[in-house]
Write a structure and sequence with these properties.
Layout: E1 5-7, E2 14-16, H1 32-45, H2 50-70, H3 81-86, H4 92-97, H5 101-104, H6 112-133, H7 135-160, H8 171-187, H9 192-210, H10 215-234, H11 242-264, H12 268-279
Antiparallel strand pairs: 1-2
């Protein structure tokens, strides 16, 4: 290899510098522009768990917008109903006409304590899982399981006639990450999966007893996460599907931003704001 060599980021195969794709797994090497873009992203987010940081950063951005709108930084309060509806909260009947809220609700948090605890859990789990399964698979897992969680919540509330209470938060996706960890440990035949599962159940029960939490979203996210972790470990040649997950990850990121933008431009929150202002005599 007179011109040097390069290592495939997917399978670790050694290639000559002039190769356009890996001789071992066939993965195309990124173009100069793509490599530059990836380098800039790593400079911005770092090379360790970048998608975890991106997810946390977007949750914090949405919370900052909520706080600016409500002019109130509360420990426990969600702020005015119109504010949380503007930035993506899910209400069962509204979710029927605006289905993107089953995704946007992931990024809405109800007070400082809510977002701090959720982001701490996301960072802890993200550091463990993103390094194991890769950034693309990580972001697909957390977004898809979050959607599954709020879809389960939506179905439960509509079929049981539950009160039309706004819901939101990253805990559905966090439960999905815990489920993925359990699935991964089970696939490895690591008995620690039992301990992680029991800890999740105890945590879920305690949260349900102490606070008003969305149990359906937690359960739905967890159940959806288990097969992700199991199948990721069972992949014999994960690089073969690397391009699929990169596309899926990009769609998840674009979809997440789009879901919040759609809520922010909806008439639903404007109607709610007018009602609240009228009640206050403004």
């Amino acid at each position: 290899m007179s011109n040097g060599s390069k290592i495939c980021p997917q399978c670790g195969g050694l290639n000559s510098r002039d190769q356009d794709q890996c001789v071992r797994c066939g993965t195309p090497f990124p173009s100069a522009a793509s490599a530059w873009g990836r380098a800039q992203l790593e400079n911005l987010l770092g090379s360790e768990a970048p998608m975890t940081k991106l997810f946390v950063g977007f949750c914090c951005l949405v919370f900052a917008l909520q706080t600016f709108d409500s002019r109130d930084l509360s420990i426990l309060s969600a702020g005015p109903r119109w504010v949380i509806l503007r930035w993506g909260a899910l209400v069962p009947v509204i979710g029927v006409i605006e289905p993107w809220r089953i995704l946007s609700a992931t990024f809405v948090h109800f007070g400082v304590m809510h977002i701090v605890f959720n982001m701490m859990a996301t960072i802890h789990l993200g550091k463990m899982l993103e390094g194991k399964v890769g950034s693309a698979r990580f972001i697909v897992t957390v977004i898809v399981t979050a959607i599954a969680g709020f879809a389960a919540s939506q179905a439960w509330d509509l079929n049981t006639g539950a009160p039309q209470i706004p819901t939101g938060g990253a805990s559905g996706g966090i439960s999905g990450l815990i489920g993925a960890l359990v699935g991964n440990l089970y696939a490895r035949r690591d008995p620690a999966y039992k301990q992680v599962f029991i800890q999740f159940v105890i945590y879920a029960v305690l949260m349900a007893l102490l606070w008003s939490v969305n149990n359906a979203a937690h359960a739905g996210g967890f159940v959806a996460g288990v097969p992700f972790g199991y199948l990721f470990y069972k992949e014999n040649r994960p690089w073969r599907l690397a391009w699929v997950f990169r596309i899926a990850a990009a769609l998840c990121i674009v979809g997440s931003v789009a879901s919040v933008v759609l809520c922010a431009t909806s008439d639903v929150w404007r109607v709610q704001k007018a009602i609240e202002m009228q009640r206050m005599g403004r």
